[in-house]
Design brief:
Blueprint (H helix, E strand, L loop, with lengths): L7 H18 L3 H6 L12 H13 L15 H15 L1 H6 L5 H9 L2 H7 L4 E4 L15 E5 L2 E12 L6 E7 L9 E7 L5 E6 L10 E12 L3 E2 L26 H25 L15 H28 L5 H25 L1 H5 L5 H9 L8 H13 L8
Helix pairs in contact: 1-4, 3-4, 4-8, 4-9, 8-9, 8-10, 8-12, 9-10, 10-12, 10-13
């Protein structure tokens, strides 16, 4: 059964990643927040360590040699713990370093052994969002047409995290727009393929060290075997078209890691806020009853409680993934909770510290800006709540919109 205390190896992981974050990330946080889209060269010696954490987050799981029935705290648990430590340092710098992206989660989730072998170790970004398609992924307009032994892709993708620095793209496209969700498939596109072009980089409120790209596909030809999953449009027992096939499996893996990122940055804000307030004579201790706390102390205690609730949801979702238990509900629950808590805590810490929180003298205002995206990408707060409601009520996507 699940143990809410971290194993020693994961406590060691957390300690090591926080040391890396403190000494190799924080010193450059402000510099690369101001120098948007600039590659952080000073951190090249940390790339290997950070890349390992990213790779584990997007592809981790049960160890192959784990006996059946064994309780495992494996790759997924290690990933969320490591991400917590790294994003306690700097979310933008973490995302901006080469490693594994959301595209790797798709390849590992639904790719063939040959595809995993060839592309699993690449730096793969995910191309889903389009100018007219946000949370409603079923409305994808990018097309994929089979021409002999090649797929021909046409369309435009926006808000592609690390789309410029990645060397592989996983692109969602439709085989037949009239068939709706059932015809949505994902395709592997190598950067540099003729017809695939990065058209612009976005200027953003937060995570400014990470590039966010718009990418166009114009008669972009890729090998037939670069389709992830099967070419057939899936049907159920009654012959009705089934929605999405395997592509939605992409999201269950990265949602707990993204939630862990929110846990990391909100912990950073809480730690800094408590340090600044302590210097002003306000220090939270848990020996006193809530009724005897000052308003500031009571607010800090409330945020600590919310933070711990979100942290435990993330650990549970990761533990379930390691132990091969279906965790789609828990993945969405932890993403919804941690995303909201991360936003609330970072903004509240700015407010509690007043001018010190709002100025660039400290990193509190940056933590607040960086945290906002963590409640949006990999499924917005509203979408996560909708998924949870469907799971709890036993409703399909067509029954509960």
């Amino acid at each position: 059964m699940i143990n809410l205390e971290l194993a020693k190896k994961h406590r060691d992981t957390l300690e090591q990643t926080m040391m890396l974050a403190e000494h190799m990330m924080r010193p450059y946080s402000r510099k690369y927040d101001k120098e948007e889209h600039t590659y952080p060269k000073e951190m090249e010696q940390a790339v290997e360590l950070i890349s390992a954490g990213r790779s584990e987050a997007m592809g981790g799981g049960r160890k192959k040699d784990a006996p059946a029935g064994t309780v495992v705290n494996g790759g997924n648990m290690g990933a969320v713990v490591g991400l917590f430590g790294l994003c306690w340092g700097d979310v933008g710098l973490f995302l901006g370093m080469p490693g594994s992206g959301l595209g790797n989660a798709a390849i590992n989730a639904v790719g063939t052994p040959e595809q995993v072998k060839k592309y699993g170790g690449s730096y793969a970004a995910m191309c889903i969002t389009e100018p007219g398609t946000g949370s409603d992924s079923a409305n994808i307009s990018t097309t994929a047409v089979l021409d002999g032994d090649e797929w021909v892709l046409n369309g435009e993708k926006i808000f592609v995290t690390d789309g410029d620095r990645a060397d592989t793209l996983v692109v969602w496209a439709t085989l037949d727009k009239s068939l709706g969700k059932a015809a949505i498939k994902s395709f592997i596109v190598e950067k540099g393929t003729p017809g695939c072009e990065v058209t612009r980089l976005e200027h953003k409120m937060g995570i400014r060290a990470s590039d966010t790209a718009a990418i166009s596909f114009s008669d972009c030809r890729i090998p037939r075997q670069n389709l992830l999953g099967t070419e057939e449009v899936a049907t159920d027992a009654e012959g009705r078209k089934k929605a999405f096939g395997g592509v939605m499996q992409t999201f269950d893996n990265p949602r707990p890691p993204v939630a862990a990122m929110a846990i990391g940055v909100s912990r950073a804000a809480l730690d800094l806020a408590r340090e600044l307030l302590r210097a002003e004579g306000v220090e939270l201790t848990f020996e006193r009853k809530p009724i005897n706390l000052s308003a500031l102390e009571a607010e800090l205690a409330r945020m600590e409680a919310q933070w711990n609730a979100a942290r435990l949801l993330v650990l549970k979702a990761a533990w379930m993934a390691d132990n091969k238990q279906p965790n789609s509900l828990e993945a969405s629950m932890c993403k919804a909770k941690a995303g909201r808590v991360g936003n609330d805590i970072t903004l509240r810490c700015v407010a509690l510290c007043q001018s010190l929180g709002y100025s660039e003298q400290h990193l509190l205002e940056k933590f607040a800006r960086d945290s906002k995206i963590l409640d949006i990408f990999e499924g917005t707060q509203q979408i996560q709540q909708l998924i949870v409601a469907r799971r709890v009520l036993g409703k399909s996507s067509s029954e509960l919109k």
